[in-house]
From TrEMBL:
Domain GTP cyclohydrolase I stretches: 34-209
Name listed for the protein in its UniProt record: GTP cyclohydrolase 1
Quaternary structure annotation from Swiss-Prot or TrEMBL: Homopolymer.
Keywords, comma-separated and alphabetical: GTP-binding, Hydrolase, Metal-binding, Nucleotide-binding, One-carbon metabolism, Zinc
Record-listed Zn(2+) binding positions: C102, H105, C175
Catalytic activity of the protein: GTP + H2O = 7,8-dihydroneopterin 3'-triphosphate + formate + H(+)
Length: 215
């Protein structure tokens, strides 16, 4: 599913294998990331060669391969795990923990995602874990919360042919907590609704299940 990422800290070699036909090579360029982190440390007046910081550029570069792994992952691959169970009613996975990185400040935002959908008319569903994996594919990129929300909803329509989908994400943005406006604890809630779940009655049933026991 995912494109392999270098683990030895060496510079990423552009992917010229067959996989590059489907996705552009987006692995983290370790050398470049290391140089950038060293520059940032110099820019803030730190000594990147002092003991505690000596390995930091390399650590940050390696962390980036995890934090931005979604850039080289294809939602179609995640949703290729599908099977027919002849179920045409609402399916919800809620409280999916989500960690992402705000594209404005490169600081984390984290919270929960709730995903519900009404399967295609032939009853085809995907595995429950795939909904959480789908969230991660879009969260592990430089992002804004609204975009993750719509991308998850649109991917389920496009790749699974669902009749309706609702996605709600609640998250705290550290760029609002530890800097800037300094409002720790504020939560941002975004939603995206498609197809049959736009119908007010169905949508209200889905919302009460999505948020059930939490309000
Ligand atoms: N809509 C949206 N805004 C976001 C998200 N993450 C961060 N932001 C906002 O992006 C905005 C960037 O505003 P700017 O004025 O360009 O940057 P800034 O001077 O650092 O803003 P402050 O955070 O207010 O200090 C801020 O208001 C952030 O709260 C997100 O996921 N969605
Ligand atoms: Zn931010």
């Amino acid at each position: 599913m995912s494109t392999p990422t270098p683990t030895d800290g060496g510079s990423a070699v552009p992917d010229t294998s067959d996989e590059s036909d489907t996705l552009p090579p987006r692995q983290v360029d370790h050398d470049r990331a290391r140089r950038a982190v060293r520059e940032l440390l110099l820019a803030i007046g730190e000594d990147p060669d002092r003991e505690g910081l000596r390995d930091t550029p390399d650590r940050v570069a390696r962390a980036a391969t995890q934090l931005y792994a979604g850039l080289s992952q294809d939602p179609a691959d995640v949703l290729s795990a599908r099977f027919s169970i002849d179920h045409e009613e609402l399916i919800i996975v809620r409280d999916i923990e989500i960690y992402s990185t705000c594209e404005h400040h490169l600081l984390p935002f984290h919270g929960v995602a709730h995903v519900g959908y009404i399967p295609a008319p032939d009853g085809t569903v995907t595995g429950l874990s795939k909904l959480a994996r789908l969230v991660d594919v879009f969260a592990r990129r430089p992002q804004v919360q609204e975009r993750i929300t719509t991308q998850v909803a649109d991917a389920l329509v496009e790749h699974l042919g669902v009749q309706g989908v609702i996605v709600v994400i609640e998250a705290e943005h550290l760029c609002m907590s530890m800097r800037g406006v300094h409002k720790p604890g504020s939560r941002t809630i975004t939603s995206a609704v498609r197809g049959q779940l736009r119908d007010p009655a169905t949508r209200s049933e889905a919302m009460s299940l999505l948020l059930g026991g939490k309000r």
